[in-house]
Design a protein that fits this description.
By secondary structure, the chain is an alpha+beta fold. Helix content is about 35%, strand content about 15%. The model is unreliable at about 1-30 and about 245-365 (pLDDT under 50).
């Protein structure tokens, strides 16, 4: 009996300690276990095409597990019911540790730490779409429709600064310092719906993939986003891209801006640097042709030098055409008077024929 009581006390005391270790839960939020070190910066990636009408984009985030931070790819999700919007979760500094404030579905977008998740989640509110008469309408300037036909669309410019911060947590050292607005505070007290099973499966699958651990991918996960939840392979998977010092997607915007003030030839050099093509390929481009055209006049100038030499040859021919011809013309009469070419030699041969009659004349008459 005494032994049973002692075990009961131990179990009760252990449960009590476990209850003390669980952080307090604020209204409208679910706070998970925390970490002493902050999560990495948000990776840079492109949004995969929407699978079809009715899906709402949920951005990727760094989840926390026993092996450290791991990336949960962003994906398209069908909302639990009409009229609900997704408020992303965020890491916040609280009492010396970073704790995870889970996201939720609600009629309005609440506070998500001021973290710039992109694709309409710029830190405050959501500019990617809105509900209109029970149908979700998409902002065409934010969402990637791909080959899917979306009829309920509108257009609203969303300005994103080139050097927008990719910090993934609020508060602490180097975190976002934004505080919730009055509207966001009111949204936190509304009735919420937790992440649906597809979202939970997305996080569970990511947590079991070692390639998505921050310690393995160094902040650039090979699976940054998926077209559908749970599908981590196939054409709908998007990998993270390297970002420049300002958080942009690399030198493309800089190269495009540099082409305008420069001439055609420098633009070919810019294209070579951005596309990585060889010099042999660049020789066939239009910008290089003016260089070859300038070389042609050099060859044309060389041709007059050869043309100038021809008159010299022509002058040399003139004396031969003038003087030798009279000499040859004088020699031709001599050839005409030669015995071989004229009739007089034949006359001489005829005189030999007249000698026979002369011999007959010598015969005595009679």
């Amino acid at each position: 009996m005494g032994m049973r009581r002692s075990w009961s006390v131990i179990i009760w005391f252990s449960l009590m300690l476990a209850g003390l270790a669980i952080p307090a839960v604020s209204e409208g939020q679910v706070i998970c276990t925390g970490n002493a070190s902050p999560p990495p910066e948000l990776p840079v990636y492109e949004q995969p095409p929407i699978p079809g009408p009715g899906y709402i984009w949920t951005p990727g985030y760094w989840g926390g597990g026993p092996s450290g931070y791991f990336w949960v790819p962003g994906t398209w999700i069908q909302p639990p019911t009409i009229g609900l919007l997704w408020t992303p979760g965020y890491w916040g500094w609280r009492e010396g540790i970073y704790v995870w404030n889970a996201g939720y579905w609600g009629p309005h977008i609440g506070f998500y730490g001021g973290v710039n998740y992109g694709f309409g989640y710029g830190g405050v509110g959501y500019e990617g779409g809105r509900w209109e008469n029970g149908v979700f309408a998409y902002n065409r300037t934010v969402n990637n429709f791909g080959a899917v036909t979306i009829t309920n669309v509108y257009e609203k410019t969303v300005i994103v600064a080139p050097g927008a911060s990719r910090v993934s947590f609020n508060g602490g050292s180097g975190g976002v310092t934004l505080r919730p607005t009055a509207e966001e505070e009111a949204a936190a007290h509304e009735q919420h719906v937790a992440a649906n099973p597809a979202q939970l499966e997305q996080e569970r699958t990511a947590g079991n993939n070692r390639a998505l651990l921050a310690s393995e991918n160094r902040g650039q996960p090979p699976i940054a986003a998926t077209a559908k939840p749970g599908e981590f392979t196939g054409k709908g998977v998007v990998a993270a891209r390297s970002a420049g010092p300002t958080g942009t997607l690399g030198p493309k915007p800089i190269g495009a801006a540099g082409v305008k003030p420069t001439s055609t030839a420098p633009s070919a050099l810019d294209k070579k640097e951005t596309t990585g093509r060889s010099e042999t390929t660049l020789k066939s481009d239009t910008p290089v042709k003016p260089l070859n055209t300038e070389a042609k006049p050099l060859n044309t100038e060389a041709k007059p030098t050869n043309t100038g030499s021809k008159p010299l040859n022509t002058e040399a021919k003139l004396p031969n055409n003038g003087k030798p011809k009279p000499l040859n013309t004088g020699a031709k009469p001599k050839t005409a008077t030669s015995p071989k070419a004229s009739n007089p030699p034949q006359v001489a041969t005829g005189s030999g024929a007249h000698s026979k009659p002369s011999s007959k004349d010598k015969k005595p008459p009679g």
